[in-house]
Amino acid sequence: MNLDKIPRSNLERLLRSMPKAELHIHIEGSLEPELIFTLAQRNGVTLAYPSVEALRAAYAFTDLQSFLDIYYAGASVLLTAQDFEDMAMAYFRRAAADHVVHAELFFDPQTHTARGVSFETVITGLTRGCERAQRELGVSSALILCFLRHLSEDEAFATLEEALPYRGQFIGVGLDSSERDHPPEKFARVFARCRELDLHLVAHAGEEGPPAYIRSALDVLHVERIDHGVRCVEDPALVQRLARERVPLTVCPLSNLKLRVFDTLADHNLAALLDAGLAVTVNSDDPAYFGGYINRNFVETFAALPQLTPRHAYQLARNSFDASFVADADKQRWTDALDAVFAAA
Ligand code: HPA
Ligand code: ZN
User: Fold this and answer.
1) Mean pLDDT (whole number) for 89-118
2) Residue range 31-46, pLDDT digits in tens
3) Taking the model in full, what pTM does it have?
4) Among residues 179, 207, 208, 300, which one is catalytic?
5) Which atom of ligand 1 is nearest to the CA of 26?
6) What is the CATH topology of the domain spanning 3-343?
């Protein structure tokens, strides 16, 4: 397999067809406006928007918070385990079409328990969705519970307590929601407890927050991956460390564009991060809100950054398997499948 001999004209087809893992997807962010309206009707929930078109037209964000306000409102239609299962299956069908072979799904229990929907309802529906994805689509998956960082550490502890009876149904914890003024240190004790419980640890850092938040996610929370992390480039010593320690960064280009982290995709630092030797992956974050699922993130970013080559495409897919929380045998099997696609290109 000579990656440097593959013509760039094959690139889009390769990006679409290569097997890949998705490691940064908020399942509530996959809720399409059509499904929001279907569920609202099914559950008798009144929406602030008169139509699918009006809702979609409201998806004009200026920063992370302006998105989060609409994202939490959209999630208000989710009431039953069936709703969570339907949402997950809708995502898995899209993911399978994009040749995602494995997905690690974030979910935000506090968004639901605050509305009176029990943790059990949420995890039961999502688990059913994950089981069906394997059975019906051959897509492997796992769940990662995210704490909302705009809430307190005590509230995170309470959520962890509610979750522990279902410890076998999720593999790790993460940290999401409003990053500014909510540094990782705020959650030091709850992450220490999760570490004792042998949960995998990840955190959003360096999306809107400063590189110091990436450092404290690593040094205080002891996370294994950084979600986003694109602002690391403001701290060259940090970039060197991330490369040396092979800390994965789950980058989400269309999210960064829609939330104005970068003005245009041509300004995105994905190529710079890869060329600095970082273990970067490409992901969709909240695909229903940011204009596309994982393949669209790949295709649009490669179109905007002509320095990206088939070698980079291979590396990104390879990184997604290496950075995933699965057994080595699974990583090897998917890497072999990836190699076969590139060998035939
Ligand atoms: N950042 C922080 N919190 C989130 C995001 C994001 O991109 N998506 C859903 N919750
Ligand atoms: Zn995210």
Assistant:
1) 98
2) 999 999 999 999 999 9
3) 0.98
4) 207
5) 9
6) TIM Barrel (3.20.20)
